[in-house]
Amino acid sequence: MKAVKIRSVYSLEFEELIRLKTDLKIEFEDGTKMVVPHKELIISVLLTKFLPYWQIRILPDILISNYYTNGYFSSGTYLKLYSILYYRIIKEYLEPNNLHTEYKYILKDMYKTINYFQNEFVYIIQDYDIGIEISNILPIALDEEILESVKKVNEEPTQDNIEKSYLTLDRIIKEGKYANNIMTLVYQSGMVNINQLRQLFGSRGFLTEIDSRIFKHPMVNSFTLGFKNMYEALIESRAGAKALFMSTNAIRKSEQYAREFQLATMPVEEIVHTDCGNTDYMEIFVRGKEYDENGNLTYGGDLKNLIGSRYMNSNNEWEVITPDHKHLEGTSIKLRSVLHCKLRNKKQVCSACYGDLTYGLFKHSNLGHINSTNITKVISQSLLSTKHLLKSAAASEVNLDKITSEFFNVKGSDKIYIKPQFVGKKTTRVLLHIPQWQVLGLRGLETINLLNVNINKISRILGFTLEIKKGEESEKYPIKIKNGNRGGFFTLPFLFYIKKHGYTIDEEDNYVIDITDISVRKTPILKYEKSEFDFNILAKEFASLAFRRKYVLQEGRRTSEFTAEVLVQKIFDLLNTKLSINIKQIEMMVYGFTVFDLDKNNFDLGRNSKYLDLVGLKYAIDYRSIGGSFGWSRLLQKIFNPYMLETKNKIDHPLDALFKPNEVVDYYNKVYEGIKDARN
Fold this sequence. Notes:
By secondary structure, the protein is α+β, with helices and mostly antiparallel strands. Among the domains are: 4-128, no CATH class; 134-228, no CATH class; 402-528, no CATH class. It is built from 23 helices and 24 strands. Strands 16-15-14-19-18 form a five-stranded antiparallel sheet, with no helix packed on it. Helix 11 (230-265) runs parallel beside helix 17. The longest helix has 36 residues, at 230-265. The radius of gyration is 29 Å and the shape is globular.
């Protein structure tokens, strides 16, 4: 079969292209030759018809089969395809030709192309459209193995048995028992949320009340089988009430938070396409993907939410993180941050510090506003979809097994202490043998500033071996920490203890930590991760972290209890337990809550300050600008308060131009030297 050059296919008109009936051997512009099914070729070319204009090579990455979900074309296929091509056009055409600001035209081309595809091509394939009927659902829901797994939940209603009913369903689908059933395609392609489908066929599981308390007994049956008794009907009605609550009260609060975030962060105005020369960094540990004992993915890893950021590589050079940087998982990296940008104008951030997310912004976008909006809109949507997104709830009570409870205590519901009778003896050594994969963040601990990192990420402890040595005698005990889906992590006092006393490596490559001299009362060893929570709790935790501050005295100065870098990582970890938020968006939001010198009441944005600190919502809005303050709360009181118009109010907000025009003009005349008329 003679190879056809790929550009000749792009030259075909729409009517000619859709008449292709045979597979073609295609030669791509990297020299690759391959036979492409004609249907895939038609759709791939139609979706990328704009590509020849951008003067980059047309490679096999245009083929949509590269972006299927479990072998199926899904709703995410377009996005994955366009993400790859968008990045390539920027790196191969815009950046080499110094056309950084022209990326809006790529997005415009993509928008027009997808519209044309949907409006023209979709009508041609109407004969292939299919729907879902009850006859597609019943064969799977009434499968003998699935019914048996539901029966076991009825006999012993535990979370483990509920999970087993889901595993049975997963196995049956993967084995291809119902390969020709449309529900198999829906299940494997990700077109519908997997938790919703599991409850359609398997046990419904434990439900939660409006206040997130877990009902004592689960719903045994699936959605398809219906209610088993009046109790199930009642708690299902409570689940409906919760969904209604989320769509009214909870969403109202969430949207109020969203407006407040936007007002507080609007002083961060724009991206400048330059490199400020920043050499400072934020240290962060990159968690990899995590799985449960059955091989199910429980956490998708940090990497996907770091893409586009720059990190310092082994050559001490800034390098952009891409999906191919999987070697960073399980390591601590030095991440370039907008918190350290060196641009003179604090309202601006350079494109090098913000990273490749720059190419997702338009020039007119207010930087603080758009980043806050991108975060809060996902939370609001999750609240609206809470009934469909959540799986069976898991209880949060911590129970240690017999051996573990012999040596350790749980205090305050989530902290683990060694019992005092086992430590502090001259004749006895107490050692912890911990697999390295559970404490990857210990590497290079001696150089890490523990006050500037989120300690939750340094370790994830599921279990270890406790060794007690008396002279030549030694006894070892298996210690189980994992509780349900929860693990533990080393506390800050214990990490300081390790940093002071060090650790060794045993013959099995485990970390060995000697805790003989530990201060039991002052040094909890572990703290449990937060238990499974719903989106309402997530929204509240997020607002609490971002809005509220606790202050301490350090060296005679009032300062926030943790640094801006730690706040970024805490919010990053919290949100990405259930969502997918890029760290740059979180950095930008946190930057809006920084101040130059809290102790001296200087509420300017805090970048490049020796005393950079964090404030809560009131300080970030009321004490920073009159325009933002008017837009936030108590408008009438403020309008009739003449002191609000004192010139000491900072000009730090776009809304200030409405109330203090002269001061704004003076301000911009100073900032933008050489501009004759700031009114322009």
